[in-house]
Design brief:
Blueprint (H helix, E strand, L loop, with lengths): L3 H12 L3 E4 L5 E5 L2 E7 L7 E6 L4 H5 L4 E3 L9 E6 L5 H17 L2
Antiparallel strand pairs: 1-2, 2-3, 3-4, 4-6, 5-6
Length: 109
Amino acid sequence: MSGSLADAARAFAAGLPEAWEDHPWGESVYKVGKKVFVFFGMLETDAGLRLTVKLRDSHEEAMSFEWVVPSGYGLDRGGWVTCAAPDDAPLEMITGWIERATGSSRRRS
C-alpha cells in the first residue's frame, strides 16, 4: 500500500474505541465486536487507499465523488460504498466516513 493517506486511514480505524483488525478472506477489515465497519481489501503494494464503508446517512454525499461507487455483492442496498480515493482526497472526510461507519455498525448490533 502506498501513500500516507492509506496509512493514516488505517491508523485512524485502528485507534477507534473497541476497534480491532481481522483478515477474513485474506482482506484487512476493522470491526467493533463482530461487526465489520470498514474493509480495506487486500494489502496491495501500489493500490493506494481503497476502502468500503457503510454510509447510510451520507451515502449521497459520498456518491458525488467519481472515485466512489456502490459496493457489490448486494452491500449497496445497505448503504455501503467502495472508494478508490486519490492521494489528495481530504483525510478528514475519509476518517469522518470511517467514524460514521463505526456508528452504523454499533446501532445495528
